[in-house]
Amino acid sequence: MTISHSPLGIRGKSCSLSRMDRIFAIIFLFTAFAASAQDPSDDTRGLGGLAEVELSALSNSNLSPLGKAALSIEPTLWKHAETSNFIYHFFHGFIATPVSVEAEYYYRVIAKDLGKDTTQWEHKSHIYIFEKPADWAEFQKKASLEPWTGGIHSGDDLFIQRNPEYKFKGRTLGHEITHLVVHRFFGSGVPIWLNEGYAEYASILGYAAYQRARNYISKPASDPIAPEDFMPLEKLADAMAYPADVKEVRVFYAESEKLVRFLIKDDTQKFVEFLDAMSKGNKMETALSKAYGGRFTGVGGLENEFKIYATRDYVAK
What we know:
Helix 10 (268-279) runs antiparallel to helix 11. It is built from 12 helices and 8 strands. The protein has helices at residues 19-31, 33-37, 65-71, 93-113, 133-142, 172-186, 192-212, 233-238, 246-264, 268-279, 284-292, 298-310, and strands at 3-7, 79-82, 86-90, 125-130, 149-154, 157-161, 221-222, 314-315. Helix content is 48%, strand content 11%.
């Protein structure tokens, strides 16, 4: 079983505005306000809320082992609903409805950015929404998750925590939706660094647009990676598991996101070609050659340029 994680409490970073930034901003303006209009006193049917259905009536009621484990926690309290691309399992409608708006938003933006047509997809993925930290902690134990995990993607399932006591929900949902879409488009062969880097990249841009749509001043910004913490690209590319040290986890996520942004900033299509090659088992050097031709003189040439980029402080204008 392949599980992708989003880091709990790790602040997102980004570096510059791109075509994807503009896509996020445009689409979000047409979708985000339905979520902010939802009043906590409303249940699932008001203000465009989700309509509850019985578990057996869902278009895809097959549950994975992790899904069954999730629903075994306070089993009598779970409710169920679905939208165009997702099935939701939740406790309260006023929490699930904003999640559904945000999930569909990320789904459309990422599919558009990667140039993928999803109109013929009939199979819907499941999103499990926990509210209480104690319930999430119990699920972490059942799923044998690292304690820093704030959400996970596993196959066609997403598991996240949305604590109603917190006004700002963070980037976990966008991060995990990105994992789901990448998994659908490119399968399970995407290397860890690339999977996490693209998920960080997409969620950072999306959450900034989310905040701006609510009249908050929010610009993508990036703290530099300290030169002494910089991870050689061969080590990053060869990683088969997450670092054991928490500090290294932070560097791993930050550097992966910066590398994705560096590769995507000039030509999204070349990045998609690179992502496709990597997902099929190509080594980084081969994928770079296929997608970027002679742009880089191998991994070493890429690292020479990227290290300057990654260790430089930046705030988007």
